[in-house]
């Protein structure tokens, strides 16, 4: 393929049609189409609800139910950080994408420092997959914040707010990772290895800052005090993200390197890393549920989430993967494990996020169970299924990952082996 070179970087000379309308991009467009339809659904619910109208306002303008209906018509209730459901599917996807994407980047940077040469040779594909997931997480949270909230961040800045803490972090982290990808693509191995350490530190920094932001935003009742009173929870996010990240690396290896000389070696390395982190995560689960909030633990382990927890998270993230990677076997078993841990990791994040909503806000006030909105009955368990718009946006965020990866691959052939010379 004909190439052009800019600053030592070889760029494939491809047509606009080949760049934007290949098979992967077409799949990405379909998924992004679902996302934009979901955004339309959310915007319509937030700002164009027919819950209140002029006729009702004229009949009884002081009616408290009417006031509540007007509030819903203006602000909506989907994806907003609110007393009733501060954690939504947007937050699930954002946390999953950010932690998993930064986890992939962390593991590749760690392999660089430890001089795993096989990882060095294929690092570009892994790092692009990781940064693509970071962008997908930011896409999800941007749709949650919506244009009005993001505009108010700049017109009425509050630098102590969570989103303002994110801006400087990502404005430094993302360029560093992109520069590391540039060094890998231009075969500047020694400089890439030197940059791996700050990227390693910043990847952990992303996890720490995100943990602090979420603790600050969502420590709103007795269930959510586990954010601030159980610091060990931070390690759950990091360790579980590493397991999901290895799953992503396994899928990338299968799709990009299957049939090539490096395939079996890569899969064996991923298998061993999976075995290690799955074992660590299993030990953590035993310890954590003995130490965190009792009411929250009862909801997850023995309450309404128990089937999803044991049948989804434990089975797919810990039990089956451990059995499949315990002994060296065919690489396909590692691919199967990768699929399981990606799905199981997402279920685990869903349970944790919605479990934070589930525990009632009554203990802080000592007044018994409370209503969660104006019309609801008092309840000891608070749970709302995700709105269709949220689900479509989350599915569509996969299109962001595919589109970014496809463009990088079309321009730079990121999937090919790059020797250290």
Would you kindly provide a written description of the structure presented here, covering whatever features stand out?
Strands 1-2 form a two-stranded antiparallel sheet. It has helices spanning 16-20, 23-47, 54-59, 64-75, 89-113, 117-155, 162-185, 189-218, 226-229, 233-257, 263-291, 294-302, 306-325, 331-358, 388-412; strands at 3-6, 9-12. Mean pLDDT is 81; it is low at 361-365. The protein has two domains: 1-49 and 85-217 and 387-415, no CATH class; 219-363 and 377-383, no CATH class. The chain is built from 15 helices and two strands. It is an all-alpha fold and 421 residues long. Helix 5 (89-113) runs antiparallel to helix 8 (189-218), helix 6 (117-155) runs antiparallel to helix 7 (162-185) and helix 6 crosses helix 15. The longest helix has 39 residues, at 117-155. 73% of the residues lie in helices and 2% in strands. Strand 1 (3-6) and strand 2 form a beta hairpin. It is globular and about 75 Å long.
Name the descriptors.
single chain; 421 residues; mainly alpha; two-stranded antiparallel ribbon; 15 helices; globular
Largest sheet: 2 strands, antiparallel
Widest beta sheet: strand line-up: 1-2
**Which value, in Å, is the CA radius of gyration?**
23 Å
* Uncertain runs: 361-365
Instruction: Write down the secondary-structure element order.
Output: EEHHHHHHHHHHHHHHH
Mean pLDDT: 81
Number of strands: 2
Q: What is the number of domains?
A: 2
Query: Portion of residues in helices?
Result: over 70%
* Shape by Cα distribution: globular
**What structural class do helix, strand and pairing data support?**
mainly alpha
Strand content: under 5%
For the terminal residues, how far apart are their CA atoms? 21 Å
Number of helices: 15
């Amino acid at each position: 393929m004909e190439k052009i070179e800019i600053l030592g970087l070889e760029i494939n000379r491809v047509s606009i049609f080949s760049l934007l309308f290949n098979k992967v991009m077409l799949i990405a467009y379909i998924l992004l189409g679902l996302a934009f339809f979901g955004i339309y659904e959310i915007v319509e619910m937030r700002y164009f609800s027919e819950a209140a109208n002029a006729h009702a306002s004229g009949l009884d303008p002081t009616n408290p139910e009417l006031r509540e209906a007007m509030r819903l018509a203006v602000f909506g209730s989907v994806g907003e950080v609110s007393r009733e459901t501060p954690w939504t599917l947007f937050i699930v996807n954002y946390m999953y994408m950010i932690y998993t994407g930064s986890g992939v980047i962390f593991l590749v940077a760690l392999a660089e420092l430890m001089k795993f040469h096989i990882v060095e040779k294929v690092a570009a594909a892994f790092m692009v997959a990781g940064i693509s997931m970071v962008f997908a997480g930011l896409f999800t949270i941007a749709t949650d914040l919506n244009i009005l909230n993001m505009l108010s961040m700049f017109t009425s800045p509050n630098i102590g707010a969570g989103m303002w803490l994110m801006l400087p972090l990502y404005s430094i982290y993302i360029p560093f990772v992109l520069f590391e990808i540039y060094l890998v693509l231009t075969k500047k191995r020694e400089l890439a290895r030197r940059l791996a350490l700050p990227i390693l530190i910043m990847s952990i920094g992303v996890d720490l800052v995100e943990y602090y932001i979420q603790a600050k935003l969502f420590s709103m009742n007795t269930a959510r005090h586990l954010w601030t009173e159980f610091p060990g929870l931070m390690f759950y996010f990091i360790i579980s993200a590493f397991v999901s990240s290895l799953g992503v690396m396994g899928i990338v290896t299968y799709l990009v390197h299957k049939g090539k000389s490096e395939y079996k070696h890569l899969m064996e390395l991923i298998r061993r890393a999976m075995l290690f982190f799955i074992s660590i995560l299993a030990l953590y689960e035993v310890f954590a549920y003995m130490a965190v909030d009792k009411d929250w633990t009862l909801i997850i382990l023995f309450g309404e989430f128990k089937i999803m927890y044991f049948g989804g998270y434990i089975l797919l993230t810990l039990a089956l993967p451990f059995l499949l990677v315990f002994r060296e076997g065919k690489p396909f078993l590692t691919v199967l494990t990768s699929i399981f841990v990606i799905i199981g990791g997402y279920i685990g994040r869903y349970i944790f996020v919605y479990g934070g909503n589930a525990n009632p806000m009554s203990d802080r006030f000592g007044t018994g169970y409370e209503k969660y909105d104006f019309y609801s009955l008092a309840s000891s368990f608070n749970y709302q299924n995700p709105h269709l718009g949220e689900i479509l946006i989350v599915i569509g965020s996969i299109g962001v990952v595919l589109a970014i990866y496809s463009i990088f691959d079309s321009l730079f052939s990121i999937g090919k082996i790059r020797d250290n010379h």
